Amino acid sequence: MAREYVWLVCTETGDRNYRTSKEIRGTERLRLKTYCKKLRRHTWHEESRRSESGAARCPLPASSRATRIVGSRVEHSAPCEATPGR
Questions:
Q1: Angle 9-49-32 from CA coordinates, rounded to 5°
Q2: C-alpha R_g of the chain
Q3: Residue 63 phi, psi (nearest 5)
């Protein structure tokens, strides 16, 4: 049985709060009502697949970017011009 890891993203805040494994074949996208740490209440969380490598999105070398880990997200101090929306 093949499984993959997926992130559960809060529909209200957009934070990735949980990571879980899921069967690949024959399943629908997960949607669970779980606890959101930011809002301090239960909210709907939907499945989101994380990219294989976060560094692949930004062509800048890692040494020239300042990173900060906030909860389950990694924020870059310098926006990347090659990626729209950043």
A1: 40
A2: 15
A3: -70, -25
The pTM is what? 0.54
Checking 46-54 for CB contacts under 8 A at 24+ apart, the result is 46/8, 46/9, 46/11, 47/6, 47/7, 47/8, 47/9, 47/22, 48/6, 48/7, 48/8, 48/9, 48/16, 49/4, 49/6, 49/7, 50/5, 50/6, 50/7, 50/16
74's tokens: 């990694």
Q: pLDDT by residue (tens digit) across 6-22?
A: 999 999 999 998 999 98
49 near 29, Cβ under 8 Å? no
Residue type, 4: E
Question: Can you read off the two tokens belonging to residue 32?
Answer: 């669970």
Which of 75, 39, 38, 34 is closest to 58 using CA atoms? 75
Handedness of CA 15, 20, 22, 24 (dihedral sign): positive
